[in-house]
Amino acid sequence: MPPPDPGQIDAALAAGDAPAVVRLLRPLFAGLDNRSHAEVTPAGRRRLVPDDIRSSYDTDLVDVSARPAAVALLEHTVDKASAAQIAELWPFLVPSILLLLDSPDLATKTRGVAALRRVLLGARVQFLALTGLLPVFWDALMTTLAFLPTASSDISVEASVALLREAFPTLYLAADLRAVQGDARTDVRAAEVAANTSPAFRIERARLLDAVLSDGVYRGLDLVGDKVEVADVLVAQITVVASLQGVHSVRTLERNVRVLARVLADPFAPAYPPLMQTAAAALAAVIRNGWPRLAPYRYEILRAIASAWRRIHEDAGRPADGGALAPVAAALAAALGLLRTAVVAAGVDWPADAAALAGVPGLAGLCI
Q1: I need a surface site. Which of 134, 204, 226, 283 has the fewest CB within 10 A?
Q2: Does the predicted TM-score (pTM) go above 0.70?
């Protein structure tokens, strides 16, 4: 039987006929391996007691990546459905999207993450809270951060980068949604949640984002080795998380400083300028948001900036006043300016701290 035409799905959605949409799509997902969702009920809610009785003896089940038409039409449905229709289609959408997330094929997994984000953005907060599935989605998303091109895996850099670029923004959205649960005033669309200024919301979101840093960014940087394109995506998340957490980012201030200092001090860092620039920008974000407690780390930050500055100027044949290293020099200078402002605001004598570096060869132009 050929797959339905997208126009048929559009017509059913326009008519408000959610059952017709399910009838069109369900045959495409028949016989797929859906044994991994013990926490989801047939109604699309969280099961209080996980169902451990699964069809583990079925050996003829196939992965959803073998059904490209099913994946494409599911994406089309998610794109076209309204918030009310997402609620009606929920019992079908949830297990279908989780199938994509559980696929061993990284391209399919990436498409599943994107589909989940569109569903979350389109749904209303109270409805999502009532389903109880946000922790399930969170756990499924966190596992995607482990698909890295390590020495013991056959994952490509390109596939890993594509997955991470979808997974991190979806996790930030999920953190917003989990943090706002229980607030009776938040019957809004998920896309509007980030504007919440409640102290309780900000504290809970910061706690969840700490987990993204520890389990996703820090662990990932320890594993990816010389895969600089992946490291660039991971380091960029420090900027995002520090900006989302604001003053609460001081809880990870020490770890952030040390991670970024390590990246900037790498003797091979100038070979891939985008990573150096990303690290310098992340350092600026860490300084900007954690300045009240920054003074104890000023020496480490100064050393990292000075080391990176010397390295990009000494890198033979690649002057920092032009080409790929020019943005790196600008980002380092901006981070240094923020550091100076922060430590002076904290009552530290900046000239005394910087005097030891002012005369070091290779630091001309850094304006210490």
Answers
A1: 226
A2: yes
